[in-house]
Amino acid sequence: MRKIAKQREEEGAEIDLTPMLDVVFIMLIFFIVVASFLKEAGLEINRPDDNQPQDPNDSVSIVVEIASDNQLWMENRRVDVRAVRANIQRLLAEDPEAPVTIKVAKGATTGIVADVADAAREAGQYNVSWATDKG
C-alpha cells in the first residue's frame, strides 16, 4: 500500500512544461513580427568612390569641411557648429542655387556630421552632397 501511495505522490509531482514552452514560442514569434515593423530613424548616405573625378561644380558649391578632430572649416576659416547655418544662409543669399558639399575627414564623429547636415537643411538647402578626404 505504501508503494502505491508513494508512486502516486511521485506522479503528481511532475510539472508539465509544454504550455510554458508554447507561451515562450508565441512570445518569440510576436517579438520577431513586431521587430520587423519597426523602422529605425537614420540618415542614408551613399559614400562616393575614391576613383571618381572631382566634380567641376565643386568650386561654386558651399563647402563645409569637417576635420578629423571635429573642427569645422568654411571659406578657409574655422567656424563653430552653431554658426554653420548662418554662414550657409549668407552664402545662399549670394547664390540661391549653390549646393552644399560636406567634406568629412576620416575620424570625424557622426554627431557633428549630422549637425552640419541639419544646419544646411535648416538654412534652406536640401541639395547636400557628401565627400571624403583621402587620408
Automatic annotation (TrEMBL):
Pfam families: ExbD. The chain crosses the membrane at residues 20-38. It is a single-pass membrane protein; Single-pass type II membrane protein. InterPro entries: ExbD (IPR003400). Signal peptide: none annotated. Keywords: Cell membrane, Membrane, Protein transport, Transmembrane, Transmembrane helix, Transport. It is found in: Cell membrane. Gene3D superfamilies: 3.30.420.270. Belongs to the ExbD/TolR family. This is Biopolymer transporter ExbD. It comes from Candidatus Paraluminiphilus aquimaris.
